[in-house]
């Protein structure tokens, strides 16, 4: 009987993709009372450019490598070479998604802080 790792990995991957699809760096809700729309759009674009400096790709890659190493080690300890490879793959997905999610949250926070710094009342 084959271990259920491929199904577990598929479920983790799907869940990760769904969570990452929900995160967006341009989701900022501002009280627009007495706000010049043209200036708001310019400030938002500037702040998004600032938030884009957060390295989500690098963080995701680091998380994937760390997850793969940890998963491979655990698989080797508790199973065989097949288990180690499966666990390494799962660890890479989970580690990469975790780091990318953290970087995405940091990006969102940078965007909100930037908009607050420009005098907007950020509601979310």
List the helices and strands and how they pair.
Layout: H1 5-22, H2 37-51, H3 56-78, H4 81-117
* Structural class by helix and strand composition: mainly alpha
Largest sheet: none
Anisotropy-based shape: rod-shaped
| Topology as a string of helices (H) and strands (E) | HHHH
Structure described in brief:
The protein has 124 residues and is mostly helical. It has 4 helices and no strands.
Summary keywords:
single chain; 124 residues; mainly alpha; 0% strand; rod-shaped; Glycine zipper family protein; signal
What does this structure look like?
The protein has helices at 5-22, 37-51, 56-78, 81-117. It is mainly alpha-helical and 124 residues long. It has a domain at 54-124. The protein is rod-shaped, with a radius of gyration of 20 Å. The protein starts with a helix and ends in a 7-residue tail after the last helix. Mean pLDDT is 73; it is low at 21-25. It comes from Alloalcanivorax marinus.
């Amino acid at each position: 009987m084959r271990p259920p790792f491929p199904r577990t990995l598929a479920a983790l991957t799907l869940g990760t993709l769904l969570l990452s699809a929900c995160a967006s760096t341009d989701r900022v809700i501002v009280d627009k009372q007495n706000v010049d729309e043209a200036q708001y759009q310019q400030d938002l674009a500037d702040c998004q450019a600032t938030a884009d400096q957060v390295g989500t790709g690098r963080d995701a890659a680091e998380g994937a490598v760390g997850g793969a190493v940890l998963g491979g080690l655990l698989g080797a300890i508790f199973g065989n070479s097949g288990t180690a490879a499966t666990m390494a793959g799962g660890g890479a997905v989970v580690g990469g998604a975790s780091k990318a999610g953290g970087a995405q949250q940091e990006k969102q926070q940078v965007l909100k802080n930037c908009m607050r710094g420009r005098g907007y009342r950020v509601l979310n």
